[in-house]
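Regression test case RT-17, inverse folding.

Input:
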């Protein structure tokens, strides 16, 4: 496609204070890579032990899954048309303004990395409010927060129309995980309301996930590349 060819030669990146969201074309389609920027790091939460949250997610999966797909396709199509039209008209991509950049990052980039629970939740650490940036194959949730974070809240997101997706709140205490193979510290991980538990070791990241160009963006999700805390 025209978009795939454009991103093959000119990858598109959206850089914020907390992360870089990079779209590029690969052999298996258009992919999205998320990386931490500045003094921020990946925090991983395994919600599997929180049965009220798990049961709520099961009831909402079909509705939220359709919402994610519609949002991704709608905003992805608008962004692709604008990008390709700008390239054809001026010889280079016509970059979106700041508001559009946030929409593309969240509605296209992040939505390609999450499923229903990741879409419904956000993390709050001090003044930082962060959407879930990734949901892996076993349901763990990844958030980008300031590296020094020791505890944070997980709560339901409030949509622009005022709808609150999940009515509950959880407090997460952070425990440092250690990679037994390399001896280096892996990203901090927390388990809601289980501060005494041992965090599971995160899987080996592959740095990218399939995004809007894929017919089924959820099928090829993989872990973002985590920064290692000092």
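Golden output:
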């Amino acid at each position: 496609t025209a978009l795939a060819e454009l991103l093959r030669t000119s990858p598109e990146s959206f850089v914020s204070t907390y992360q870089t969201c990079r779209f590029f074309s690969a052999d298996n389609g258009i992919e999205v890579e998320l990386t931490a920027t500045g003094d921020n790091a990946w925090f991983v939460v395994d919600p599997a032990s929180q049965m009220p949250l798990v049961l709520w997610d099961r009831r909402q999966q079909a509705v939220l899954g359709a919402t994610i797909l519609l949002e991704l396709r709608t905003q992805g199509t608008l962004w692709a048309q604008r990008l390709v039209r700008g390239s054809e008209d001026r010889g280079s991509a016509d970059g979106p303004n700041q508001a559009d950049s946030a929409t593309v990052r969240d509605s296209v980039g992040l939505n390609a990395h999450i499923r229903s629970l990741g879409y419904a939740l956000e993390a709050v650490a001090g003044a930082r409010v962060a959407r879930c940036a990734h949901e892996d194959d076993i349901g763990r949730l990844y958030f980008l927060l300031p590296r020094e974070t020791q505890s944070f809240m997980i709560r339901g997101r409030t949509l622009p129309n005022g709808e609150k997706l999940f009515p509950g709140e959880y407090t997460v205490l952070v425990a440092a995980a250690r990679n037994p193979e390399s001896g280096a510290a892996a990203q901090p991980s927390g388990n809601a309301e289980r501060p005494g538990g041992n965090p599971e070791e995160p899987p080996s990241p592959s740095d990218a996930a399939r995004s809007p160009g894929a017919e089924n963006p959820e099928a090829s999700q993989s872990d973002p590349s985590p920064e290692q805390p000092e």
